[in-house]
Design goal:
The complex is a heterodimer of chains A (591) and B (90). With 591 residues, chain A is an alpha+beta fold. Chain A contains 21 helices and 19 strands. Chain A has a domain of 325 residues: 3-Layer(aba) Sandwich (Beta-lactamase), CATH 3.40.710.10. The chains are: A alpha+beta (591), B mainly alpha (90).
Chain lengths: 591, 90
């Protein structure tokens, strides 16, 4: 090293004596493999990235595609509207309309000015204190009111309160209200059927909500339709057999009767003789399905279908029909009913009056218990039990109505003689009003019985023959005589039409004994007799006025119902009698 | 020769690209229109249901009878004051 070199190189790193390029450290020869290793590692890293990229892009791409979709696709719910319920003429009985549930984020709402909250309380029809109580909650989601109708919702949204929002839901409206409710039923707040046809046909009415997938842009507009994810199925409309007009007539008749006779309750059912359709089914007391805040069990009870009772004298035509059918009696067979009572195995059966010697027709017309028991004694118990079964008594009903009662007919082997005698006039077995009405089909039709339907029937059902047409005609003649001046149902006469039917009075069981004063009065009838069209059964429960028997409470109610129903249905009159003769002291049937 | 071809192809490419843009634009517009009309149809359906409901409510037999009795002074028909004409009868 020279002196000059030292001087000039004073500022360089090698000032200590060695130039960088000549540094002995660098002179060390590194092994070749090290650089190759670095090269290889770098190449391998790139290769791994490439393979990964191919893997994600080409082979296993579903996961990322799904994740991607979920970030730009939106699934829109397509709600299914619940089907409407229509009457046979297409009038709406129940229909769902969109409403809103108003909900709130309490924290945000409480920060808004008090006058806005006051206005909100007013629109929601609740006291301000109650609204504040609802908002006083730790939760971040509180329903303020459900099923708010659209005009009110619009006003609420106009208030522009922070933290108030709405959710779409449906509300069920029942325009016919209390008149039709026992048949149609109602749904709960979740749009689920709770009673009547709403419950029975829940599945087909409900429908299935669907969804579709779309891509939305930044403004929330749909930019692209990606098609249906699930096709929505709208709830199907349900057409009932009921006729709004007849239903209203039946309801009015029952309502008037319950008020007039100071009764606890009343019910009526109207059947179409040809199709087995239930044209009207009325109950009183009733309730308004649009406002069920004060609902009691008494109002909810469907006395036509779910209640059973002893049929009383209304069963006598069935007893007689079996006697006639088997040839054991004819309409003119004579029975001696003196002295107005008889004993069967020590127990007494009595009539209200001593009817003396009577033909079979007379027994029906005067409703003699003794006569019915005597006819029954000619018929073996098994045959009678089979007859009851054929007309549907004690049989699980198949009309498609929730909670329909089967009634009770004990097996014939367990009948004691006195019980059998009592059954001939309707004690010791129970049926529903609808079963009773249906059993009269065998008289109204030519001896056959058809299934009942709550839905509109398009073709006439095929009947099952129970008695011969001849027997049916004979019993029809007897039933018509009951509704004459000399029968127990003289009050059931209708101006202009021939009516036939049978009254019944059942004593209610109080403290294990038949009560003399607490009754149920019935009437089951057919009109017009020349060409039967309707079967009507009426039941008045616990009439507490001066009139208590079927002939005095149920028969006039049925007459009222018949006259209006026949007129409303444009049935041509088959009788020229327009003045009704009702005896001053009408005959009362035995109980 | 090849320059000419390139120019033609480029022009074609640009034209295609623009037509794609246009088609997408049209599709988007038609979709928005479709959505709008579907919403409108849905609203009309709701209105129809509402009107049918109103018809049923206003056509309630109870209301008709009340109006007939009270406002129009009508009364029920009875067979006693009805003349029936039967076809073929003498």
């Amino acid at each position: 090293m020279t002196r000059s070199a030292q001087k000039s190189g004073a500022r360089v790193a090698a000032s200590k004596g060695v130039a960088f390029s000549k540094s002995p450290v660098l002179a060390v020869r590194l092994p070749d493999w090290r650089s190759r290793l670095v090269l290889f590692v770098l190449f391998a890293a790139f290769a791994a990235l490439a393979v990964r990229a191919v893997w994600l892009q080409g082979v296993s791409n579903q996961f990322l595609q799904k994740q991607g979709k979920s970030r730009y696709e939106r699934t829109l719910e397509l709600p299914a509207t619940r089907g409407r319920i229509l009457d046979r003429n297409g009038a709406v009985l129940a229909s769902s309309l969109p409403v809103r549930a108003v909900w709130a984020i309490p924290e945000d709402v409480l920060e808004s000015p008090p006058e806005k909250i006051r206005a909100l309380a007013g629109l929601l029809e609740m006291p301000e204190a109650e609204l504040r109580k609802k908002l006083d909650s730790d939760r971040s989601f509180v329903y303020l009111k459900r099923q708010v109708e659209m005009p009110i919702v619009d006003q609420i949204l106009k208030l522009k309160i922070d933290g108030i929002d709405t959710r779409k839901e449906y509300k069920r409206f029942y325009p016919q209200g209390e008149v039709m409710t026992h048949l149609v039923g109602f749904t709960n707040v979740e749009d689920k059927g709770q009673e009547g046809m709403e419950l029975q046909h829940q599945k087909s009415l409900m429908g299935v909500p669907g969804s579709r997938r779309v891509i939305k842009d930044r403004l929330g507009h749909i930019a692209e339709d990606l098609g249906m994810f699930r096709e929505p199925h709208q709830g199907r409309d349900l057409t009932l057999s009921v006729d709004s007009k007849l239903q209203y007539i039946a309801f009015t008749s029952i309502k008037n009767a319950v008020e007039k006779f100071n009764a606890k309750a009343g019910a009526a059912v109207v059947l179409d003789v040809h199709t087995g359709e239930v044209l009207a089914l009325a109950n009183f007391p009733t309730y308004n399905p649009n406002d069920r805040s004060k609902l009691t069990g008494e109002q909810l009870r469907n006395r036509v279908i779910t209640d059973t009772f002893e049929p009383g004298s209304t069963i006598k035509p069935i007893t007689v029909a079996l006697g006639l059918e088997t040839g054991r009696i004819t309409p003119d067979t004579v029975f001696d009913n003196n002295p107005g009572w008889m004993t069967v195995t020590g127990k007494r059966i009595r009539d209200t009056h001593n009817y003396g010697v009577q033909t079979v027709s007379g027994i029906i017309q005067k409703s003699s218990n003794m006569g019915a028991a005597k006819i029954a004694q000619l018929i073996p118990q098994q045959e009678m039990w089979e007859m009851y079964t054929k007309v549907g008594y004690g049989q699980a009903p198949r009309y498609g109505f929730p909670g329909a009662a089967a009634g009770r007919v004990r097996p014939w082997k367990s009948w004691r003689p006195i019980e059998y005698a009592n059954m001939a006039f309707g004690h010791g077995l129970s049926v529903s009003l609808l079963q009773m009405a249906r059993s009269y089909m065998i008289f109204a039709r030519n001896g056959d019985i058809i299934p009942l339907s709550f839905l509109k029937v398009n073709e006439e059902p095929v009947g099952q023959q129970v008695i011969s047409p001849k027997t049916a005609a004979q019993v029809r003649t007897m039933l018509e005589s009951v509704v004459g001046p000399g029968g127990t149902a003289s009050r059931a006469q209708v101006a202009g039409y021939r009516v036939g039917g049978k009254t019944g009075t059942a004593e209610k069981i109080v403290d294990g004994r038949y009560s003399r004063t607490i009754n149920i009065g019935y009437f089951a009838g057919i009109a017009p007799m020349s060409k039967p069209r309707f079967i009507i059964a009426v039941m008045i429960d616990e009439p507490r006025g001066i009139y208590r028997t079927g002939g005095s409470v149920a028969a006039p109610t049925a007459a009222d119902l018949f006259s209006n129903a026949l007129r409303a249905a444009n049935v041509p009159p088959d009788s020229s009698i327009t003045d009704i003769i009702i005896p001053e002291v009408p005959l009362e049937e035995s109980m | 020769m090849s320059v000419k071809l390139n120019v033609v192809l480029t022009a074609l490419l640009v034209a295609c690209a623009l037509s794609v843009v246009n088609a997408r634009y049209q599709a988007r517009h038609l979709l928005i229109e479709l959505e709008r009309l579907q919403t409108h149809a849905h609203q009309l359906e709701i209105d129809w249901a509402q009107l049918q409901l109103d018809q049923s409510t206003l056509g309630k037999n109870e209301r008709i009878e009340q109006i007939a009795n009270a406002e129009l002074a009508m009364s029920r028909l009875t067979p006693a004051r009805t003349q029936y004409l039967t076809e073929g009868a003498k």
